[in-house]
Amino acid sequence: VSGGARKVQEWVYEWGLGEKRKKLPPGDLGWPILGNMAAFLRAFKSNDPDSFINSYIRRFSRVGIYKAYMFGTPTIMVTTPENCKQVLMDDEHFVPGWPKATCELVGKKSFLFIVHEEHKRLRRLTSAPINGFEALSTYIEFIEDTVVSTLEKWAGMGEIEFLTELRRLTFKIIMKIFLSSEGDSIMESLEKVYTDLNHGMRAMAINLPGFAYNRALKARKKLVAVLQGVLNERRAERAKNPHPATKDMMDRLMEAEDETGSRLSNEEIIDIMIMYLNAGHESSGHITMWATVLLQDHPEIFQKAKAEQEEIRRNKPPMQKGLTLKEFRKMEYLSKVIDETLRVVNISFVAFRQATDDVYVNGYLIPKGWRVQTWYRSVHMDPQVYPDPKDFNPSRWDDLTPKPGTFLPFGGGSRLCPGNELAKLEISVFLHHFLLGYQLARVNPTCPIRYLPHPRPMDNCLANITKISAA
Ligand code: HEM
Q: Where along the chain is heme bound (predicted)?
């Protein structure tokens, strides 16, 4: 029976391709409805998520492209640097193709749906004010003040969920950039809602009470309502005072005009904000936690990173108060620690695209309309690319310029993460102060890791933060 059921699945999706189906990459479409999701979930719920792609490599060799049926649709998975690079660089043949759950939660007017020229325009409009040199020099002071006062506070709090607290910290920072003039109450209500939204993001799209996706849909509704309220108030204010003294991202989005003079609708502004506020704090919070934990678990690396920060502190001009971007650029070893954290942790283990036409990758067909997954995780965990890939070894980056496609923690091509520099700055400022003055003691150091939606210890890194010297 099982063989028969699997044949039906192949017949439904492959038969229409005619002779071309012989060009499909190796793999199978699994069971009707479920496809290969059971094997995927089994691996990602175990302590060895790499076993999923490794089973393809074992069965079909390292061709780096396999067929499967995932998240309710036939899918081609690309897993090697060359193949990922080809997909990421080809905007004509690949557009975003995220699972239904993600799309409905992030919104129809977010970048997940916007393509080509319109996508480029909105990227231009939003990326310089986040990631540009000028922008980063403006934000560094706020980031540092927030980090310093937050670390002080934690040190007096006893046991905390370190990850939960870091997510709050990174949320404060992204809110400052996007909605600087709003008060604490807006921030608190948004921050809580985001936890639910994120949990539903990579869950199965089951809209029934009790399921993560159902809670997330409700969270999205709340977010839309809060942001709509803020937008209404702002439009009323701007009618009275069209030139405010300072502008945040919401102001920029409200003012943006295309060549014909038309502006973004409320719906567009809200979806872009929801996307940015989410993407702009979850990953950075997680990576900051993992970098701290990995440093704490590797005393030699900790000492080396600390020595570099001490040097930076020693060389600081006496009149200069905070950190500068110049000093940030001098944190060479810390930068390797962060890159190595991004590589081993794989916060975004995969990205989703859809083929707009038949495309050949490594000689195999990706049929028009099929989903494509770029497996960033398998690139980073491939022993042919990174020897002993599970080892946390920042020194592997000494004199290493990664070849194209081999280092994709922020994706690549036209959809490269627009917050990559900001994220690295936040993480570095945090680690600077942590290394110089604090220690982390986890309550359950061997706590199991949950890999979906993002890798995290199941106890959210319950820990005590203690101050060891004046930072
Ligand atoms: C360590 C932190 C971060 C990691 C690991 C990360 C990772 C990624 C990755 C892998 C992508 C590409 C997904 C794809 O290929 O489709 C991406 C896209 C994106 N990221 Fe980040 N990100 C981080 C921080 C941030 C921050 C701080 C912001 C906002 C300020 C941000 C905003 C975005 C947005 C808006 C996109 C969509 C870009 C587009 O489709 O054009 N991210 N991020």
A: 417
Q: Is the ipTM of this complex over 0.85?
A: yes
Which atom of ligand 1 is the closest one to the Cα of 342? Answer: 5
pLDDT in tens, 6-45: 888 888 999 999 999 999 999 999 999 899 999 999 999 9
Whether the CB-CB separation of 32 and 8 falls below 8 Å is answered with: yes
Is pLDDT of 329 > 80? yes
Q: Among 117, 170, 417, 425, which is best to mutate for testing ligand 1, by the most ligand atoms less than 8 A from CB?
A: 417
pLDDT digits (tens, 9 = 90+) for 188-238: 878 888 888 887 876 667 788 888 889 999 999 999 999 999 999 999 999
CA–centroid distance, 460 to ligand 1, in Å, is 22
Residue of minimum CA distance from atom 43 in ligand 1 = 417
Which residue owns the Cα nearest ligand 1 atom 35? 276
**Nearest ligand 1 atom, CA 348:** 10
461 annotated binding-site participant: no
pLDDT in tens, 174-200: 998 888 867 778 888 788 888 888 878
Q: How far apart are CA 120 and CA 77, in angstroms?
A: 26
Q: How far is the CA of 276 from the centre of ligand 1 (A)?
A: 8
Determine the distance separating the centroid of ligand 1 and the alpha carbon of 442, expressed in angstroms.
Answer: 29
What pLDDT digit, counting tens, does each position of 265-295 carry? 999 999 999 999 999 999 999 999 999 999 9
Query: Quick one: CA torsion of 359, 364, 370, 373, rounded to 10 degrees?
Result: -100
In terms of pLDDT, which residue wins out, 174 or 471?
Answer: 174
| Closest to 181 in 3D by CA, of 254, 110, 247, 134 | 247
